[in-house]
Amino acid sequence: MKFDLITIFPHILDSYLNESILKRAQKKKLIKINFHDPRQFAKDRHKTVDDRPFGGGPGMIMKLEPLYKTLKKIKYTKKSLVILFDPAGKKFDQAMAKKFSELDQLIMISGRYEGVDARIEKFIDEKVSIGPYVLSGGELPAGVIIEAVSRLLPGVLGNQESLREETFTSNSEIRNQKSEIYKEYPHYTRPEVFKYTEKGQKKKLAVPKVLLSGNHKEIREWRARNKK
Description:
Number of helices: 7
Order of helices and strands: EHHEEEHEHEEEHHEEH
Largest sheet: 5 strands, parallel
Low-confidence stretches: 171-179
């Protein structure tokens, strides 16, 4: 799958995208991440991509022409989607991540300054928000979406079974039942008893005994009762 991010800061996510799961996924050619800087289409020697808003008001607005020309430069596939990050957009969730993972290509526009010339809406498919708050740009949302979508692609995770019982996975996806949000149960690992000292007192935290019992029926029942 291809991710194409339009941003005036094409190296802002380099560190994160070149570590761990995403690095391996790129190396295995399961995903490809491209960055496109609209400054390359700015006409002046300062590579200006913003200007004052018509009608007055604070801040600067990203110009339409450099963004449009950047979009035109990108080669689309048969299953491409163009999104613009906007705090008022549709809230990104696991269901949207699943929908995006079925695409061949996701093209993302990262705004900056006070916003983007509203005429960009003619050239996008959807506005997306990762939460009810305002960020300085869409680069961090792009990183969130790239990871959330990539891990749903076959071969990206070391063990694809990890997806079967994750929080926000719908039961319809894992059990062919009526769709409802799946909430994951608590997890524990070694040591069986964690000992520590707090305010001069020795304390310990033990793993629930049922998880050490080897009784799979009782473990399943305990997990069902203790979903987060």
